[in-house]
Write a structure and sequence with these properties.
There is one protein chain. This protein is α+β, with helices and mostly antiparallel strands. Helices cover about 20% and strands about 45% of the residues. It contains three helices and seven strands, in the order H-E-E-E-E-E-H-H-E-E. The chain has a seven-stranded antiparallel sheet with strand order 1-2-3-4-5-6-7. A hairpin with a 5-residue loop joins strand 1 and strand 2. The longest helix has 19 residues.
Amino acid sequence: MYRPSRSLLLLGAFTLGVSSVRAQTPVPTITVTGVAYTQFVYQLKDTANHTNSFDVTRSYINVLGRFAGGVNTRVTADIYRQAGDGSLRYRLKYAYFAYTPQHSSLTYKVGQIHTPWLDWEEALWDYRMQGQMALERGDQIAPRSYLSSSDFGFGVDGQWGPDRINMQIGIFNGENYNG
């Protein structure tokens, strides 16, 4: 009859202990996602002259990072169609570091972050697809928007309960992400 030696059993127990420690250590993850808003137009003016086009009007490319100790990052590129000449342009919409202490309901953010009002308003319109929110567009005569969905600053987000109470405050420089 085969009986494993005591050293073999200790080696097996040590290996199980090391593998359980590795499983608990968070592994940094980088995720790349994107959203594209497209449109197709077919307009029949007459039999010889009509419009047939497919266009990408706006898109977002997100790079999200999750690291040990509650540190997160986000970088979002906003690719949009320039009014007037119709060319595609890009700008940085979000670029921030966030820190959530362990067992805390608060998240601290610094960088180009969400502004509270438009972030809340965009959450109400889950399936919005017609460009920016009305307050972000401004008027056509003076090309300055009333509010911006992103700005450089420092903010604190809080969430209590399963999305029952949310809070967001921030201090911003007022330049907007498109400024």
